Amino acid sequence: MGLQNSQGSTVFLQIANGKIVRQFSQPTDKSVSRVNKVGREVHEEFYDSLVGTIKDIKVRESEYGKSWQVIIGDDNGTYTLDIKYSSGYAVSFLKALPNADLSQPVALTPKLNIDGDKKQSVLFISQNGKGLKHYWTKDNPRDLPPMKKIKVKGVETWDDTDRMEYLENYIKDNILQNTKPVVQDNNDDDIPF
Fold first, then answer.
1. Is 161 inside any structural domain?
2. Fewest CB atoms less than 10 Å from the CB: which of 38, 65, 160, 191?
3. Full-model pTM
């Protein structure tokens, strides 16, 4: 399960160019080095997927903007996968999440398709060897708000604010209670942490 090279500590991961990325301060035998946008040399290892049980999902704000942090656990440790808040990776992950059994491991596999100047990023969730379908679809959007076309500085663009707020609230209200660990007290009643 997992990335298979962690020993009990939290490993921080990102998604870039259709791969799961782990950064290191020093080169490793598997890392590729590059200079990032702020001029700092980074050393990265790339993975096709991450497998484990979803333990928690958080929204985080930082100097780089808003992101989702998906906490995954396995026998080797804990992984925190950082996903840009309204990216194609995040939206595809969130749309499939209600169809996942969060008591069982999932495989998260990012893909990036490039067609000319168009990029489509997707984060697939599979479980027990089968890809999970989206809960909200074009044919059955349920109550997911549509994106709105707005003008920003005279240029028309698509605004997903209502959609992302809805997904954030849906995850908080309907999914997260299924990820909390349960302990037994002396009365044998299940008590969430």
1. no
2. 38
3. 0.84
